[in-house]
Design goal:
Blueprint: H1 2-28, E1 33-35, H2 37-42, H3 48-57, E2 62-68, E3 74-80, E4 93-95
Parallel strand pairs: 1-4
Antiparallel strand pairs: 2-3
Helix pairs in contact: 1-3
Length: 96
């Protein structure tokens, strides 16, 4: 019985690592300024807020900033601290 529990734990740990890697890649690869929670979800991150939190716990500095989505609505996005996309002014675009 302990083997089934261990294999479940390994599988979920592996899925979590994949989720974090996907979220980090989105944050690193965005040049628009920031990535919204909904965009992360659309691009395959099942629990984007949890992924951001876990990345912060792992030592990544992630800023939550106000940005403008492609339809012109103000929303919140996330970006790696010090990323070049953040130098676009007070309301950068959100990546889609």
């Amino acid at each position: 019985m302990a083997d089934a529990t261990n294999s479940d734990h390994v599988q979920s740990h592996s899925e979590r690592d994949l989720e974090l890697a996907r979220a980090l890649a989105l944050l690193q690869g965005n040049g628009a300024g920031s990535v919204t929670i909904s965009t992360m979800r659309e691009r395959g991150v099942k629990a984007p807020a949890q992924a951001i939190y876990d990345l912060q716990l792992a030592g990544h500095a992630i800023d939550r900033i106000s940005c403008t989505d492609p339809r012109g609505h103000r929303t919140f996005g996330h970006r790696l601290h010090g990323s070049p996309g953040g130098a676009q002014g007070p309301s950068p675009a959100c990546a889609r």
